[in-house]
Amino acid sequence: MRLVVVGAAGRMGRMLIRAIDQAQGSVLVAAVERPGSPEIGADAGVLAGLPARGVVVTEDAAAAFAAADGVLDFTAPAATVAFADLAARAGILHVVGTTGLEPVHLAQLAEAARRTPVIRSGNMSLGVNLLAALVRKVAATLGTDWDIEIVEMHHRMKVDAPSGTAVLLGEAAAEGRAVDLAERRVAGRDGITGAREAGTIGFASLRGGTVVGDHKVIFAGSGERLELAHVAEDRSLFAQGAVKAALWGRGRGAGLYSMADVLGLDAL
Ligand code: NAD
Protein backbone atom coordinates (compact mmCIF):
# COMPACT_ATOMS: atom_id res chain seq x y z
CA MET A 1 0.00 0.00 0.00
CA ARG A 2 1.45 3.34 -1.06
CA LEU A 3 1.28 5.74 1.90
CA VAL A 4 1.90 9.46 2.40
CA VAL A 5 2.80 10.91 5.80
CA VAL A 6 1.64 14.51 6.34
CA GLY A 7 3.27 16.45 9.19
CA ALA A 8 6.28 14.25 8.47
CA ALA A 9 8.68 16.27 10.66
CA GLY A 10 6.43 16.13 13.74
CA ARG A 11 6.86 13.81 16.73
CA MET A 12 4.24 11.43 15.32
CA GLY A 13 5.22 12.02 11.67
CA ARG A 14 8.71 10.61 12.27
CA MET A 15 7.21 7.62 14.12
CA LEU A 16 4.84 6.99 11.22
CA ILE A 17 7.73 6.90 8.73
CA ARG A 18 9.43 4.25 10.89
CA ALA A 19 6.19 2.27 11.36
CA ILE A 20 5.59 2.15 7.58
CA ASP A 21 9.16 0.93 7.18
CA GLN A 22 8.62 -1.90 9.68
CA ALA A 23 5.15 -3.03 8.55
CA GLN A 24 4.68 -5.60 5.82
CA GLY A 25 2.65 -4.45 2.86
CA SER A 26 3.17 -0.68 3.18
CA VAL A 27 5.63 1.65 1.49
CA LEU A 28 6.30 5.37 2.02
CA VAL A 29 5.82 7.20 -1.28
CA ALA A 30 5.71 10.83 -0.06
CA ALA A 31 6.23 12.99 3.01
CA VAL A 32 4.52 16.36 3.36
CA GLU A 33 5.21 19.30 5.68
CA ARG A 34 3.67 22.76 6.01
CA PRO A 35 4.90 25.41 3.58
CA GLY A 36 7.96 27.15 5.05
CA SER A 37 9.00 24.20 7.22
CA PRO A 38 12.80 23.97 7.49
CA GLU A 39 12.48 20.23 6.73
CA ILE A 40 11.21 20.74 3.16
CA GLY A 41 13.79 19.05 0.89
CA ALA A 42 15.10 16.73 3.61
CA ASP A 43 15.11 12.96 3.04
CA ALA A 44 12.16 11.46 4.94
CA GLY A 45 14.12 8.37 5.98
CA VAL A 46 16.96 10.43 7.45
CA LEU A 47 14.39 12.63 9.24
CA ALA A 48 13.06 9.50 10.97
CA GLY A 49 16.52 8.22 11.92
CA LEU A 50 16.60 5.63 9.08
CA PRO A 51 18.85 5.29 6.05
CA ALA A 52 17.93 7.64 3.15
CA ARG A 53 14.74 6.52 1.39
CA GLY A 54 14.90 8.78 -1.67
CA VAL A 55 11.61 10.36 -0.58
CA VAL A 56 12.08 14.10 -0.21
CA VAL A 57 9.82 16.13 2.13
CA THR A 58 7.52 18.31 0.03
CA GLU A 59 4.84 20.96 0.60
CA ASP A 60 2.82 19.81 -2.45
CA ALA A 61 0.18 17.57 -0.83
CA ALA A 62 -2.03 17.37 -3.95
CA ALA A 63 0.79 15.92 -6.07
CA ALA A 64 1.73 13.53 -3.25
CA PHE A 65 -1.84 12.26 -2.85
CA ALA A 66 -2.25 11.71 -6.62
CA ALA A 67 0.29 8.87 -6.54
CA ALA A 68 -0.79 7.19 -3.28
CA ASP A 69 -3.39 4.80 -1.82
CA GLY A 70 -3.64 6.43 1.60
CA VAL A 71 -2.51 9.27 3.85
CA LEU A 72 -1.54 9.14 7.54
CA ASP A 73 -2.34 12.43 9.24
CA PHE A 74 -1.27 13.43 12.78
CA THR A 75 -1.06 17.20 12.33
CA ALA A 76 -3.44 19.97 13.51
CA PRO A 77 -7.21 20.48 13.04
CA ALA A 78 -7.06 23.13 10.27
CA ALA A 79 -4.49 21.09 8.33
CA THR A 80 -6.49 17.88 8.76
CA VAL A 81 -9.71 19.31 7.25
CA ALA A 82 -7.72 20.63 4.27
CA PHE A 83 -6.10 17.19 3.83
CA ALA A 84 -9.54 15.53 4.12
CA ASP A 85 -10.78 17.46 1.11
CA LEU A 86 -7.60 16.71 -0.88
CA ALA A 87 -7.76 12.99 0.03
CA ALA A 88 -11.42 12.83 -1.02
CA ARG A 89 -10.62 14.53 -4.33
CA ALA A 90 -7.79 12.03 -4.93
CA GLY A 91 -10.08 9.17 -3.81
CA ILE A 92 -7.58 7.85 -1.26
CA LEU A 93 -7.96 6.58 2.31
CA HIS A 94 -7.44 9.15 5.08
CA VAL A 95 -6.26 7.95 8.51
CA VAL A 96 -6.70 10.78 11.05
CA GLY A 97 -4.97 10.78 14.43
CA THR A 98 -5.14 14.56 14.92
CA THR A 99 -6.88 15.58 18.15
CA GLY A 100 -8.54 18.80 19.30
CA LEU A 101 -11.06 18.61 16.43
CA GLU A 102 -14.09 20.88 17.04
CA PRO A 103 -17.61 20.08 15.76
CA VAL A 104 -16.96 22.20 12.66
CA HIS A 105 -13.89 20.12 11.79
CA LEU A 106 -15.74 16.85 12.48
CA ALA A 107 -18.54 17.96 10.14
CA GLN A 108 -15.97 18.58 7.37
CA LEU A 109 -14.43 15.13 7.98
CA ALA A 110 -17.91 13.55 7.80
CA GLU A 111 -18.47 15.33 4.49
CA ALA A 112 -15.16 13.98 3.11
CA ALA A 113 -16.12 10.50 4.38
CA ARG A 114 -19.11 10.53 2.02
CA ARG A 115 -16.58 10.48 -0.82
CA THR A 116 -13.71 8.35 0.52
CA PRO A 117 -12.91 6.12 3.53
CA VAL A 118 -11.82 8.05 6.64
CA ILE A 119 -10.57 6.26 9.76
CA ARG A 120 -10.39 8.57 12.77
CA SER A 121 -9.43 7.87 16.36
CA GLY A 122 -8.21 10.03 19.24
CA ASN A 123 -6.08 7.02 20.15
CA MET A 124 -4.81 4.30 17.84
CA SER A 125 -3.70 1.79 20.51
CA LEU A 126 -5.37 -1.57 21.18
CA GLY A 127 -5.22 -1.02 24.95
CA VAL A 128 -7.09 2.30 24.92
CA ASN A 129 -9.77 1.08 22.54
CA LEU A 130 -10.27 -1.98 24.73
CA LEU A 131 -10.42 0.33 27.76
CA ALA A 132 -13.14 2.39 25.99
CA ALA A 133 -15.21 -0.76 25.48
CA LEU A 134 -14.84 -1.60 29.20
CA VAL A 135 -15.75 1.96 30.23
CA ARG A 136 -18.91 1.80 28.07
CA LYS A 137 -19.91 -1.41 29.80
CA VAL A 138 -19.19 -0.22 33.34
CA ALA A 139 -21.00 3.09 32.74
CA ALA A 140 -24.04 1.17 31.43
CA THR A 141 -24.01 -1.05 34.53
CA LEU A 142 -23.58 1.58 37.24
CA GLY A 143 -26.23 4.23 37.98
CA THR A 144 -25.68 8.00 38.06
CA ASP A 145 -25.01 7.77 41.80
CA TRP A 146 -21.54 6.73 40.61
CA ASP A 147 -19.62 9.85 39.52
CA ILE A 148 -17.38 9.53 36.47
CA GLU A 149 -14.09 11.47 36.39
CA ILE A 150 -11.36 11.14 33.77
CA VAL A 151 -7.77 12.13 34.62
CA GLU A 152 -5.05 12.37 31.97
CA MET A 153 -1.39 13.38 31.92
CA HIS A 154 0.75 14.23 28.89
CA HIS A 155 4.12 15.78 28.04
CA ARG A 156 4.69 19.53 28.36
CA MET A 157 4.51 20.19 24.57
CA LYS A 158 0.89 19.04 24.13
CA VAL A 159 -1.30 21.92 22.92
CA ASP A 160 -4.87 20.67 23.45
CA ALA A 161 -6.83 19.60 26.52
CA PRO A 162 -8.52 17.36 27.50
CA SER A 163 -6.57 14.86 25.39
CA GLY A 164 -8.28 13.21 22.41
CA THR A 165 -8.08 9.95 24.34
CA ALA A 166 -9.78 11.43 27.40
CA VAL A 167 -12.58 12.68 25.14
CA LEU A 168 -12.80 9.23 23.48
CA LEU A 169 -13.15 7.65 26.95
CA GLY A 170 -15.72 10.29 27.96
CA GLU A 171 -17.72 9.50 24.84
CA ALA A 172 -17.62 5.80 25.71
CA ALA A 173 -18.92 6.58 29.23
CA ALA A 174 -21.66 8.83 27.80
CA GLU A 175 -22.67 6.12 25.31
CA GLY A 176 -22.90 3.60 28.15
CA ARG A 177 -25.26 5.96 29.97
CA ALA A 178 -27.13 6.83 26.77
CA VAL A 179 -26.45 10.57 27.22
CA ASP A 180 -24.75 13.24 25.10
CA LEU A 181 -21.20 14.02 26.30
CA ALA A 182 -21.48 17.66 25.17
CA GLU A 183 -24.31 18.19 27.68
CA ARG A 184 -22.56 16.40 30.58
CA ARG A 185 -18.94 17.42 30.13
CA VAL A 186 -17.19 19.43 32.87
CA ALA A 187 -13.57 20.12 31.92
CA GLY A 188 -11.36 21.88 34.47
CA ARG A 189 -12.53 23.24 37.83
CA ASP A 190 -11.26 26.36 39.58
CA GLY A 191 -12.59 28.52 42.42
CA ILE A 192 -16.00 28.14 44.10
CA THR A 193 -17.52 25.63 41.70
CA GLY A 194 -20.35 24.47 43.93
CA ALA A 195 -21.08 20.79 44.61
CA ARG A 196 -20.70 18.27 41.84
CA GLU A 197 -23.78 17.99 39.62
CA ALA A 198 -25.03 14.38 39.41
CA GLY A 199 -24.66 12.74 36.00
CA THR A 200 -21.82 14.98 34.79
CA ILE A 201 -18.60 13.52 33.36
CA GLY A 202 -15.53 15.38 34.65
CA PHE A 203 -12.09 15.84 33.04
CA ALA A 204 -8.79 16.86 34.63
CA SER A 205 -5.65 17.44 32.52
CA LEU A 206 -2.09 17.39 33.86
CA ARG A 207 0.89 18.51 31.74
CA GLY A 208 4.58 17.97 32.32
CA GLY A 209 7.83 16.33 31.35
CA THR A 210 7.86 13.75 28.60
CA VAL A 211 4.80 11.66 29.57
CA VAL A 212 3.54 9.82 26.45
CA GLY A 213 -0.04 9.43 27.75
CA ASP A 214 -1.62 8.30 31.03
CA HIS A 215 -5.40 7.93 31.40
CA LYS A 216 -7.54 6.91 34.34
CA VAL A 217 -11.33 6.61 34.41
CA ILE A 218 -12.66 6.79 37.95
CA PHE A 219 -16.14 5.58 38.89
CA ALA A 220 -16.67 7.04 42.37
CA GLY A 221 -19.58 5.61 44.34
CA SER A 222 -20.57 6.06 47.97
CA GLY A 223 -17.93 4.25 49.99
CA GLU A 224 -16.17 2.54 47.06
CA ARG A 225 -14.37 3.43 43.86
CA LEU A 226 -13.60 1.59 40.64
CA GLU A 227 -10.60 2.80 38.59
CA LEU A 228 -9.65 1.71 35.07
CA ALA A 229 -6.32 2.93 33.74
CA HIS A 230 -4.06 2.81 30.69
CA VAL A 231 -0.42 3.84 30.40
CA ALA A 232 1.18 4.41 26.99
CA GLU A 233 4.92 3.82 27.28
CA ASP A 234 6.00 4.54 23.71
CA ARG A 235 4.35 6.63 20.98
CA SER A 236 5.44 4.14 18.29
CA LEU A 237 2.35 2.23 19.46
CA PHE A 238 0.08 4.92 17.96
CA ALA A 239 2.03 4.93 14.70
CA GLN A 240 1.82 1.14 14.39
CA GLY A 241 -1.95 1.40 15.03
CA ALA A 242 -2.28 4.01 12.26
CA VAL A 243 -0.47 1.78 9.72
CA LYS A 244 -2.62 -1.17 10.79
CA ALA A 245 -5.72 1.02 10.24
CA ALA A 246 -4.51 1.97 6.75
CA LEU A 247 -3.94 -1.67 5.74
CA TRP A 248 -7.40 -2.58 7.14
CA GLY A 249 -9.03 0.30 5.25
CA ARG A 250 -7.58 -0.54 1.87
CA GLY A 251 -10.33 -1.23 -0.65
CA ARG A 252 -13.20 -0.26 1.74
CA GLY A 253 -16.02 1.93 0.57
CA ALA A 254 -16.48 5.57 1.53
CA GLY A 255 -17.45 6.08 5.18
CA LEU A 256 -16.26 7.14 8.60
CA TYR A 257 -14.59 4.32 10.52
CA SER A 258 -13.11 4.09 14.02
CA MET A 259 -10.26 2.13 15.58
CA ALA A 260 -12.91 -0.07 17.23
CA ASP A 261 -13.94 -1.08 13.67
CA VAL A 262 -10.31 -1.80 12.75
CA LEU A 263 -9.73 -3.87 15.90
CA GLY A 264 -13.13 -5.59 15.77
CA LEU A 265 -14.08 -4.33 19.24
CA ASP A 266 -17.61 -3.16 18.46
CA ALA A 267 -19.11 -6.47 19.52
CA LEU A 268 -17.76 -6.08 23.09
P1 NAD B 1 3.89 17.88 16.41
O1 NAD B 1 3.62 19.34 16.64
O2 NAD B 1 5.21 17.31 16.81
O3 NAD B 1 3.69 17.55 14.84
C1 NAD B 1 2.71 18.09 14.03
C2 NAD B 1 3.35 18.30 12.66
O4 NAD B 1 2.31 18.67 11.73
C3 NAD B 1 4.40 19.42 12.66
O5 NAD B 1 5.61 18.94 12.07
C4 NAD B 1 3.75 20.50 11.79
O6 NAD B 1 4.69 21.27 11.04
C5 NAD B 1 2.87 19.64 10.88
N1 NAD B 1 1.83 20.44 10.22
C6 NAD B 1 1.00 21.35 10.77
N2 NAD B 1 0.23 21.91 9.81
C7 NAD B 1 0.58 21.34 8.63
C8 NAD B 1 0.17 21.50 7.28
N3 NAD B 1 -0.78 22.38 6.94
N4 NAD B 1 0.75 20.73 6.32
C9 NAD B 1 1.71 19.83 6.64
N5 NAD B 1 2.15 19.65 7.91
C10 NAD B 1 1.60 20.39 8.88
O7 NAD B 1 2.69 17.11 17.13
P2 NAD B 1 2.57 15.55 17.48
O8 NAD B 1 2.97 15.33 18.91
O9 NAD B 1 3.21 14.74 16.41
O10 NAD B 1 0.98 15.37 17.43
C11 NAD B 1 0.25 15.66 16.26
C12 NAD B 1 -1.24 15.38 16.51
O11 NAD B 1 -1.43 13.98 16.73
C13 NAD B 1 -1.81 16.08 17.76
O12 NAD B 1 -3.14 16.47 17.48
C14 NAD B 1 -1.77 14.98 18.81
O13 NAD B 1 -2.69 15.17 19.87
C15 NAD B 1 -2.15 13.79 17.95
N6 NAD B 1 -1.81 12.47 18.51
C16 NAD B 1 -2.74 11.48 18.31
C17 NAD B 1 -2.49 10.19 18.73
C18 NAD B 1 -3.51 9.11 18.41
O14 NAD B 1 -3.25 7.92 18.70
N7 NAD B 1 -4.63 9.44 17.79
C19 NAD B 1 -1.27 9.88 19.36
C20 NAD B 1 -0.33 10.91 19.55
C21 NAD B 1 -0.61 12.19 19.10
Task: Write a structural description.
With 268 residues, the protein is of the alpha/beta class. It is built from ten helices and twelve strands. The chain has helices at 11-22, 44-47, 61-66, 77-90, 103-112, 126-141, 164-177, 181-184, 236-249, 259-263; strands at residues 2-6, 27-32, 57-58, 70-73, 93-96, 117-120, 147-154, 185-187, 201-207, 213-220, 225-232, 255-257. The strands form two sheets. The chain has a seven-stranded parallel beta sheet, sandwiched between helices. Helix 1 (11-22) crosses helix 9 (236-249), helix 4 packs parallel to helix 5 and helix 6 runs parallel beside helix 7. The longest helix is centred in the middle third of the chain and has 16 residues, at 126-141. The chain starts with a strand and ends in a 5-residue tail after the last helix. The structure holds nicotinamide-adenine-dinucleotide. Nicotinamide-adenine-dinucleotide binds at residues 6-7, 9-13, 32-34, 37, 74-76, 79, 97-100, 121-124, 164, 235, 238.
